[in-house]
Amino acid sequence: MKKSKLFICIVVIYFILVGLPSPASAKSTVRRYRGTPSVLVNKYWKYTPSHTNATQYFYGTHNTFVAKHTYRGSFRSSVISWMGLFGYYVIQGVDSKKTNYHDWWFIKPNKNFSKIRFGFITIPQNDIPKHEPAYYANKVATRTSLVTAILH
């Protein structure tokens, strides 16, 4: 309960503060940056849910984050901004299917980016996530190649 309140307070502060674009890590304090975090650009991951054989693919470009073959189908988030929070990259982007909705991505990579803990939600534009990043980042994806991610 206390962590949820803390997360909500930090997100409110996030919307009040305006950050300038500059390099930062996921361990940063609450500053907002534009585009996809540079450490996530041109990195590709795959995830296979335990209840199915359908593999999902995720990757970032300079201004978008892409999901393929998810329960929502394939979609692309035009990245507005991101911030580092509790060791997670929290990325907010405009949903490609519903422009009045935002996709929120929660990504925590290991040291060499071979695996990530991740999750995402889609909520109305004026809403904010109700839980801390660890609540949403409940899946583990492994690195894959560009060819595999793009072709599938």
Radius of gyration: 15 Å
Query: How far from one another are the termini?
Result: 40 Å
Within the largest sheet, what's the order of strands? 2-3-4-5-6-7-8-9
What percent strand? Answer: 35-45%
What class, by secondary structure content? Answer: alpha+beta
Low confidence ranges: 16-26
What is the averaged pLDDT score?
Answer: 83
Main β-sheet, in a few words? 8 strands, antiparallel, barrel
Which shape, going by the Cα principal axes?
Answer: globular
Number of helices: 3
Task: Write up what this structure looks like.
With 152 residues, the chain is α+β, with helices and mostly antiparallel strands. The chain is built from three helices and nine strands; from the N terminus they run αββββββββαβα. It has helices at residues 2-16, 133-136, 146-151; strands spanning 33-34, 44-47, 56-60, 64-70, 73-85, 88-95, 101-109, 115-124, 139-144. It has an eight-stranded antiparallel barrel with strand order 2-3-4-5-6-7-8-9. A hairpin with a 2-residue loop joins strand 5 (73-85) and strand 6. The longest helix has 15 residues, at 2-16. 27% of the residues are buried.
